[in-house]
Amino acid sequence: MSDGPATTPNETVDGSGNNAIDDEPTRHAARWGSVERSAEERSIKRRAHRKSRYGCKNCKTRRIKCDERKPECTNCRNRQVRCDYLPTALSQTASRTLSCESTASPSDAAPAPNALNVADAELMYYWTTSTCHTLSAQSAGATFWRTSVTEVGLAHAYVLHLLLAITALHLAHCRPTRRDEYVAHADKHYTAALPSVTSELSHINQGNCDAVLLSVQIICFITWARGPKPGEFLAFGVNGRSEWLIMFRGVRTTRESLDQGSFTRSLAPNLRAKTAPLRELKPPPDYKEPLVELLSYIKSNSVPSQLESNLCSHEVLLECYQNRHNGIDGEYHVVFAWLYKMQEGFLEALQRHDAVPLVLYAHFAVLMNDMETFWYMRGWTAHVLGGIWGILRDEDRVWIRWPMAVVGFIPP
Predict the structure, then answer these.
(1) Inter-residue long-range contacts of 171-174, CB under 8 Å, 24+ positions, other chains counted
(2) pTM of the predicted model as reported, rounded to 2 decimal places
(3) 127 FRET partner, CA 20 to 30 A, in 222, 229, 358, 402?
(4) 145-198, pLDDT tens digit by residue?
(5) What is 311-349 written as a DSSP string?
(6) Contacts for 378 with CB less than 8 Å, ≥ 6 apart
């Protein structure tokens, strides 16, 4: 009597006590099938690799592998673009430099001691080849900005920072897909320049007067280039005097602080230069009759204490129209001589939102509209007229219908 269960000749007992078929052909077929499946799996199995599931947007847009390095991936760093991993745009601009090649691994690489700031080099290149030409309607004026102003910038760092800031905003306008990156560069350079400009304004002398005058002019351009902002209408603001007007009036303060001969690199050359008149508009606006009607409105609606300044404002405005359309003006931005020459009493009334100064300002907007041929003035005319329309009462709005019709402004 055996200790285990009975078996047939073709059966064996496995380690668990269960019967197993001792069938050689069956075992051979099973082994052959396993070999075939293993070979097939090896032939179709792809090589394992690390997938980039959390890559930055730039790499995903370009459909390339992102190494997900922090604080910015290698692809964005090499292309000098803002990486999504950076906490702020300003931190990116401060950290972006091009280091020399190194044999060390990418994770251990560090900027070279003499690292080249490619972003600033790009801005300087476009300043001298493109942006400087947009600040003047004349080739001689563009040459002045490209050569004389650049030389002043090389001697005064804050001027150079402002030149790079206006260029960065120009690139932001021309390359909307990289707008945030270029605006960050503009903010960085503007922030670096402003403290020095403020300090120099309070200590102006023959050694720095050209740099200071050019700086406040460039800051005015930068404000235009940043585009219209709610509540800011250049000559006035919803909650008081606008920042732009304060800086614009700083041009006058700077010029009056010294005699004109002291500004040897900025003011004097432009005063001596003879430029061709601006191209006449065809047809030119019929401004004479509307300005006569405006004069009647001023006389009828001005309070006695403001009548003189309002009449002076109208006289200067008429002169600006005549200079523009009678072949005298050689630059578009000289129309801002109207605001430049305004008395403080008139500007204060404008900040109080008095009706007559606002109506006068609306008629000035027609001259300002000519400047919308420049990239940095786009949208400002409609914005200013919209601000004036929103403040005026219905009985005063009728007096700005002519400026609205000339520039094609439709109120909201």
Answers:
(1) 171/123, 171/126, 173/225, 173/375, 173/376, 174/375
(2) 0.71
(3) 229
(4) 999 999 999 999 999 999 999 999 999 999 999 999 999 999 999 999 999 998
(5) HHHHHHHHHHHHHHHTT--SSGGGGGHHHHT--HHHHHH
(6) 227, 372
